[in-house]
Amino acid sequence: MLVEINLLPKRERKSQIIPMISIVVAVLLIVGATTFYFVIQHMEQQISQLKTELDQTKALRIAEEEKQKTASNASVGAQLQEAIQWAEQYPVHTVALLHELIERLPERGFLMSISYARDGAIQLTAQFDTTRESAAYLQALKEASFIADVKLTSLTAVEGKAEEEGTMPRYIGQFSLQLNMEEWKKQQQGGET
Hints:
The protein has helices spanning 17-89, 94-103, 131-143, 181-188; strands spanning 110-116, 121-128, 147-158, 170-179. The chain is an alpha+beta fold.
């Protein structure tokens, strides 16, 4: 039998695990980078598509707003024209009307507030020293030719201040009037006062 004697040191076998791991890691990195690249490309396409849709939506919204502005401007224009026509047909000079209402007040009567509606309805509040003065004012308004209807809706007594003992109460009268538009128009054109 033959015996082999090898005096040379035994070579250690290089481990093939490290190169294999390196190759697997390299392949995984290449696959990951490629996947990442394609995902990024897909997302950029989606973003581009969404931006295009957003721009189209903005353009549609602006077009709709312009349509609505045009329609509302036409509507506002028509309303203004209608108001102008009404004002030309039924001119009520409020300064002259106030003058007429104040002129009929008794000496110690005061006009506190007045509101006027388009249809000629007038609500006014006046202060008087006595109930007789409020009745006299009501009668004066009834006799005015430019007033179609007048009512005393309420009469309230208001006490004076606490410091002023012995003061007489004041009376606050609420009146509801209906203006006779035709008569008022005649009167303003130089008719009777």
